[in-house]
Amino acid sequence: MAEKILQIRNLRVTFETPFGQVFAVRGVDLDVEEGELLGVVGESGSGKSVTFLAAIGLLSSRARVTGSVVLQGEELIGKTPQQMRSVRGRLMAMIFQDPLSALNPVHRVGKQIVEMLQSHQNLTNKQAATRAVELLDLVGIPQPEQRSNQYPHEFSGGMRQRVVIAIAIANNPKLLIADEPTTALDVTVQAQILEVIKRVQQQFGTAVVLITHDLGVIARVADRVDVMYAGRNVEQGLVDNLYDHPSHPYTRGLLSSIPQAGKDRLTPIRGFPPNMMSPPSGCAFRTRCEFAEPSCEVDIPELKMFNDLQTACLRAHQLPSFQVRQ
Ligand SMILES: Nc1ncnc2c1ncn2[C@@H]1O[C@H](COP(=O)(O)OP(=O)(O)OP(=O)(O)O)[C@@H](O)[C@H]1O
Ligand SMILES: [Mg+2]
């Protein structure tokens, strides 16, 4: 089995707000293997971003974080903000939906890559500038030498996201976390950015976590998938297994609600995601689940191996086989 680069165990994140506590992440367990591309999916508010912001140490001090996040054998929970700054960029980097927020508008893009390189590596200005141009080339920016002297506003959205990826991979991190990196881009550009991310994974052996709502994107690029619901993982496995025979009723619901060729009707999941100030007891999905029974109200189901997948459903072994409804 491949080495694990990241191991998250019983991660919990609670926010104190003027209206009460928000239980955003409620016991997440997941592994990222060296060099793999893990897709993380789930409806809005399921805790995808908060899980990885906690892992990389970018949550505000109002968040209470407990559990364990081990990156390359090193525990990250409990590290000081200064220690986490050294981890970020060097071992693990994160990119977001909006590339402008990650770039400094008053600095040339080349300089921003140089700064990232020099904050973790002992390089002369000339060496760093050469490397910055190489990185721009690698992420598919045409005429990288001229472009490195330009400012972020001179780039299109897709080109800016390429620059952000160049900065993120500048120090050859072991893990790249991409949180909805293509949501703000049009479809053609989306495909190009995904291709850059896939190339980084394949060329450098960088493990990638790709957070998205889009199961189609996951099907195209991911090796494994983690499905989140109400602050927990409910199903994990290899993409082919998960799409072919999902066990968890929530995963089945997600797969039934995506457009497919030859299918004229979508079946959305009934109801709404729960309020994370007072999530339902037991299995949080039970309030929307057609297979729920009284025992689902009592205990929170843990992930268990069933039919090639890790599934957190008490009834996984009793459910009818799955077919995308026509
Ligand atoms: N700073 C915060 N203070 C209070 N609650 C927060 C904060 N950040 C996130 N939350 C809450 O935590 C829960 C998980 O949010 P998160 O952003 O991780 O969802 P997500 O799965 O990334 O959703 P999306 O797909 O919309 O990005 C939500 O209920 C959200 O409202
Ligand atoms: Mg998010």
Features:
11 helices; 31% helix; globular; binds adenosine-5'-triphosphate; binds magnesium ion
Can you offer a commentary on this structure?
The strands form two sheets. The protein has an eight-stranded mixed beta sheet, with helices on both faces. Strands 2-1-4-5 form a four-stranded antiparallel beta sheet, with helices on one face. The chain is of the alpha/beta class. The longest helix is centred in the middle third of the chain and has 18 residues, at 187-204. Helix 5 crosses helix 7. The protein is built from eleven helices and twelve strands. Bound molecules: adenosine-5'-triphosphate (ATP) and magnesium ion (MG). Magnesium ion binds next to helix 1.
Quick description:
Helix content is 31%, strand content 24%. It has helices at residues 48-56, 81-87, 99-102, 109-120, 125-138, 144-147, 157-168, 187-204, 215-221, 239-244, 249-256, and strands at 4-17, 20-33, 37-41, 63-71, 74-75, 92-95, 175-179, 207-211, 224-229, 232-238, 304-306, 309-311. The strands form two sheets. An eight-stranded mixed sheet has the order 6-7-8-3-9-10-12-11, with helices on both faces.
Number of strands: 12
The shape, in one word, is globular
Q: What structural category arises from helix and sheet content?
A: alpha/beta
Q: What is the overall number of helices?
A: 11
Question: Residue-averaged pLDDT, rounded?
Answer: 94
Q: Biggest sheet, in brief?
A: 8 strands, mixed
SSE blueprint:
Elements (H helix, E strand, L loop, with lengths): L3 E14 L2 E14 L3 E5 L6 H9 L6 E9 L2 E2 L5 H7 L4 E4 L3 H4 L6 H12 L4 H14 L5 H4 L9 H12 L6 E5 L7 H18 L2 E5 L3 H7 L2 E6 L2 E7 H6 L4 H8 L47 E3 L2 E3 L15
Parallel strand pairs: 3-8, 3-9, 6-7, 7-8
Antiparallel strand pairs: 1-2, 1-4, 4-5, 9-10, 10-12, 11-12
This protein binds adenosine-5'-triphosphate and magnesium ion (MG).
